[in-house]
Amino acid sequence: MRINAQILIVEDEAAQQAVLAYNLTSAGYETVQAVDGDKALQLIEEQLPDLILLDWMLPGTSGIEICRQLKVRKDTQAIPIIMLSARSEELDKVRGLETGADDYLQKPYGIQELLARIKLQLKRTRPATMGAELQHDDLRMDTETQRVWYADREITLGRREYALLLALIEQPGKVFKRVTLLDQVWGREFDGETRTVDVHIGRLRKVLSQFGAEDVIRTVRGSGYALY
Question: Are residues 120 and 17 located together in one domain of the fold?
Answer without folding.
Answer: yes
